[in-house]
């Protein structure tokens, strides 16, 4: 180690990317919050869309009691499924069958569900006990829709069921279509890369089956599917693609609109912020994913979008999301517009009547934040009427002051709470005075007169004023081409708004000297038995989200690597212990894991990823010779080795890049069959082993301990299988995972010790930091190095290891 010393400020150690779309400075406008005299904005009269009468008929599992009623609720996913539903009473045809006739927009796709009324309102659920998010149907002229209601959320019926299993394909090419929503009887499935979907535990009988494109790029397809008891109904759905057209939206905003405030469009399609998920506060659209309109010379706002011709669009204009600060009709009712995207380029002109609802005056929130707040951060405000809802980006005024003007829906609130956070990560990166998921927040009370609430954020939770960091220079041996210097992004606490901050995270990763980024997309184990393993919108990135992230990484010259993993409702150990693990369950598990692995092999191939990583510590009970966390046998099938060989063979047939196996290492234990390692291209060694139990241990002690493990336990394995080894490192910023106090230096010391050990061992082919948190820098106990001294250390070491800096 040399005596050279580098002094750097953490705040400039990582490059920041200006997020201009949200950070347009309102200080450019004089008196931006001064109300001008209200004028009546002209409201365009849209051409009425054709309508048709639809009769809904539903069969109940048992008769209603004397004091109960049945309703059909038309849902508004743009405002929020629980927030703007329209309820229609149904009339009995007999003791089990109820009907209602509704006039609906022809060719529209509607979302609805049934509710039982009595002392309280009870919503329907599925035969498996899952909530019905919504049913879907397309209005194909005058028609009758026949539904079967499986269950109520307060009851449980034992009734025969079956399932629908199928694929969604392109009508012309026959290519499989991922990321399509298929639904019947309120049960939903998102197709994987093979176009595969499964709708399980449906009541026997005829069901309306609908395949729906989340972004409208394919025309929806609707047909009747018959479900028989204990049978799988096979279905192949071929969808017609829709050509893209250029649609320009021009909106005249009310004169009370805050000058410079970003005006967005919220809608029912993916590109209008819809996540198709139940997010905080029962909303589904996210402001960060909506298109932002530009202020024009004539004072109106405009945006041009490429949209699929014929797509059915429900949308509204907003200064927030679909609920907060969204446009209203003059009556105060929620505004929700309808449009069928025309078949040619066109301009749509709209006028926004008002942002307000009722007589309550707007409230201006101003927050002064600490000067040490990272320059690339955006401050968000989060409101709580009954529960905390999705945070909203504030508007920068300069000099560390942020503002947000709330217009609506103040008429229904009276009083409510609010709080501030960084980069939309409320509950994680909060104002220290209102920190945590259970915080009550600051209080606001509506009034007939305008208010200006000025707050000061004294400090942030999990982020303190950065201090000078000393990095001691070292003689670093540059590696030949192929050395992987990477950052593995965390998958925990994923939220759909991560996509907005991903470009910044990738630029920061590049600035650390990394040449690779490891993405960790997930599927969720929603049920152990019967097994349900699939994409859960809101908890898992959609296919398009992952594809865009990979594209952004490659555009920066970073090698994109996929390391897919599962989400569990509790822990992987509890999952395996609670599983029945009988022959049928094992068969189902291997079938779903194969689909999972092939899905990401296809994504890696189609997006140009450099490598695909399979494996992980959670898989131990499913590997040959594996056991459960309590040490008991996994009850694996006799041909388990052949099953894994088949999965890897199928993966290689789909993806021609590097396939690595994530091998967990614990003290004196490297757990994976050699036969499996022979079938991959590299070992991705998951390393989090403690290097010393001595509190007086030094970095040199740590380095020696790491070197001893590498030489005595890892090197023989590498020599035996003759595969490159990438060291994937994970250490918390605490003396131990159970430690109460944050210790940023211990993480940096562990990293430096391992880098010193790697530097002396040319046979180590890569170094990866695991757990990098993409949305925001945190100085907490987590394994993320973002914003911590360990990041400064990597900034020095990584480019020198790769030879980019000499």
Salient structural properties:
disordered N terminus; alpha/beta; single chain; TIM Barrel; globular; six-stranded antiparallel β-sheet; Immunoglobulin-like; 806 residues
Structure notes:
The chain contains 10 helices and 46 strands. By secondary structure, the protein is α/β, with parallel strands linked by helices. It folds into 3 domains: 12-30 and 359-456, Sandwich (Immunoglobulin-like); 51-239, Immunoglobulin-like (Sandwich), CATH 2.60.40.10; 474-802, Glycosidases (TIM Barrel). An 8-stranded parallel β-barrel has the order 35-36-39-41-42-44-45-46, surrounded by 5 helices. Strands 3, 4, 7, 8, 9 and 11 form a 6-stranded antiparallel beta sheet that branches. Helix 8 (699-721) crosses helix 9. It is globular, with a radius of gyration of 28 Å. The two termini are 16 Å apart.
Short description:
The protein is α/β, with parallel strands linked by helices and 806 residues long. Helix content is 17%, strand content 33%. Strand 35, helix 2 (498-511) and strand 36 (516-519) form a beta-alpha-beta unit.
Structural domain count: 3
What is the share of helical residues?
10-25%
Q: Do you know the CATH architecture of the largest domain?
A: Alpha-Beta Barrel
CATH class of the largest domain: Alpha Beta
